[in-house]
Design a protein that fits this description.
Length: 302
């Protein structure tokens, strides 16, 4: 067992979470959420996406969000970019980190970005090359690494191949997305093990949605492989517009509670994170989708 000493949590709530919340969240409140997350010590906060507003209307104000964030030098605010048009918008917004997003299943790729996996790789190539030439860091996502809502099982060989392609293209980090949350610890370990043959473990991130309640167990299992970057969403916000029934990402509060129990450093202040969680939960009109947050908030109320 080689647990890491420290973990970087990437809070994807303002993008992955809010892109799929039924409630309308104003630009001002999305920015306030990002500020609260950075106050809590998060160093990577996914701020939005430069995608087609017809496909993902909730992220249409990402340019304005980027404009209003009081940026800190030690915090990264990645934005999703599917093509050159998105990159141009990201450059105009002075984004310093972007993420391209592929899928391990053909049908999901078609439903999500309207092209095959091979076509998406062809599209990302000039995006990544240009971004890197402008000094912008690029993250590479792969969706459906442990199951697809349309095709069911997904081949680990496919996940490994796409990971290798994105990493060789210049993505500094490969985020492995269990989009519909069907993965279990054994499968997660097999998948991450396979990817680690082509991407060094420090460059691998795990991105679990918690639909089947497996996310924390999967994270614990992959931490044992040395994985040290975990995507999570404050208050467990969100889901996925192209994966019916998928719940949000694992809640940042639940991940933090577990990591604190393992003495793994994150740099995050739990009480400030709780304040971010309470703030956004109030706005979306439901309690946090986090057991730890609910227990601790209840305790605070006495
Ligand atoms: P398309 O319809 O094939 O694109 O969509 P197109 O190039 O034919 O353009 C159609 C229209 O969109 C045109 O406008 C373009 O200008 C516009 P019109 O002339 O008709 O008025 N357009 C854009 N507008 C703004 N920004 C852009 C852009 N590109 C084209 N970048 C496209 C293809 C990729 C654009 C579309 O499918 C799309 O935007 N998809 C985004 C889907 C998405 O964001 N999904 C959620 C993120 S993935 C995720 O959540 C999973 C993840 O969390 C990991 C996990 O959980 O597993 C990452
Ligand atoms: Mg996701």
């Amino acid at each position: 067992m080689t647990f890491p000493n420290s973990v970087r949590i990437v809070d994807v709530g303002p993008r992955d979470g809010l892109q799929n919340e039924p409630a309308d969240v104003s630009t001002v409140n999305r920015v306030e959420l990002i500020h609260k997350l950075q106050d809590a010590g998060l160093k990577s906060i996914e701020a939005g996406s430069f995608t087609s507003p017809r496909w993902v209307p909730k992220m249409a104000d990402t340019g304005e969000v980027m404009d209003r964030i009081k940026r800190r030098n030690d915090v990264s605010y990645p934005v999703l970019v599917p093509n050159i048009k998105g990159l141009e918008a990201a450059l105009a917004a002075d984004a310093r980190e972007i993420a391209v997003f592929a899928a391990a299943s053909e049908t999901f790729s078609q439903k999500n970005i309207n092209c095959s996996i091979a076509e998406s790789i062809g599209r990302f190539m000039p995006v990544v090359t240009r971004a890197i030439s402008e000094g912008i860091k690029v993250r590479g996502y792969i969706s459906c690494v442990l199951g697809c809502p349309y095709e069911g099982d997904v081949s680990i060989t496919n996940v490994r191949r796409i990971s290798s392609t994105l990493f060789d293209m210049g993505c500094y980090e490969i985020s492995l997305g269990d989009t519909i949350g069907t993965g279990t610890p054994e499968k997660s370990v097999q998948m991450v093990d396979a990817v680690s043959e082509v991407v060094p473990v420090p460059n691998i991130a795990v991105h679990f949605h918690d639909t089947y309640g497996q996310a924390l167990a999967n994270i614990y299992a992959t931490l044992q492989l040395g994985v040290s970057v975990i995507d999570a969403s404050v208050a467990g916000l969100g889901g996925c517009p192209y994966a019916k029934g998928a719940t949000g990402n694992v809640a940042t509060e639940d991940v933090l509670y577990m990591l604190e129990g393992m003495n793994i450093e994150t740099g995050i202040d739990f009480s400030k994170l709780l304040s971010a969680s309470a703030f956004i939960s109030d706005i979306v009109g439901r309690p946090p989708q986090s057991r730890a947050a609910n227990a601790l908030l209840k305790k605070q109320l006495g």
